[in-house]
Amino acid sequence: MSGYGNGGYGDPAGSSGANLPQGHPHAPPVPPQGHPNPAPGPPQGYPYARSGPPPAYPYPQSGPPPGYSYPPFYAPVPPPRPQPSRARNILRGLYNPLYAAQRTFRPSRPGIVNDPEVRKLQLWRTGLGLVAWVGLMVTYNAIASADDVQGVAGERLDQSWSSVLVLVCTFPVVVGAFVAAARDGLRRVYLRRTLRPLGSVLAIMASMGTSALAMAPELAGLRDAVGLPGRILIVVLFLWSLGFALYGIGLSLVHVFRTADIHEVLPPILAGVLVWEMALLDVITGAYDQVPTGARVIFILGAPVTVTALSCWELYRLRRNHGLTLRTALRR
Q: Which of 3, 70, 235, 300 is most buried (most C-beta within 10 Å)?
């Protein structure tokens, strides 16, 4: 009988050489017992190979765990919110003077170092200083009636304006000395960065001019000349400038007219110079004359000592955490 009829060259149908009995002329040789490389094959008693990773596979399969009836759900990540355009920022500032003050008096240079701990301490220092000032006025009977409250509030506002005016006068001196002391390669960079701080100075001066336009007796003829629509426009501009100026004064004193846009070490230096100037101005003008001498000395010196300590601590944090010093700023 021919082997072709049995499925292949004498083998039974559907069989292979691996299934022939031992001793058959076409059977493969059997390796001896203890051979280091035994013939591969499926385990005994398991006729079919199992699909998937073998038992104790070190890497888990991808997909949901066994018994999980629903596919995994991943919440879509929202796209980043687009930045508002310049025209939208201007429009928002026209009807919101507080937003305009934030855009004008807060530093915003790309890559600027912002230490939230120092900013938080500055806010605490400002609040505690205000509480101490009110307590001092109440303790020594500076406030006894509603008229006294109005007078003390006006005095405090005048002091804030005086601080801003002194800062306006001190700003070009300190900044000019800082730029002049820098190396030649940095002077042009620092001069270009002074545009925004200078713009904030001009903005606070313009807001002060708006209040004079609305209330100064010398400009009454101008208010009469523009008629009723002009007076309405002046009043609206004055109210907008009032909110802008009051919020801007606080931001200007905290951020020191955004001089961090020039360099981070400049605000603590300028703040220390400003506060000692204000203390000297209080001594010259005889501020708090109703307070006893000892308390007056403590109160006048408390602000410059506190601000100087805060400025030194801010310079220390800039040097320790960010490697910024006055010498590196000037490349000396």
A: 300
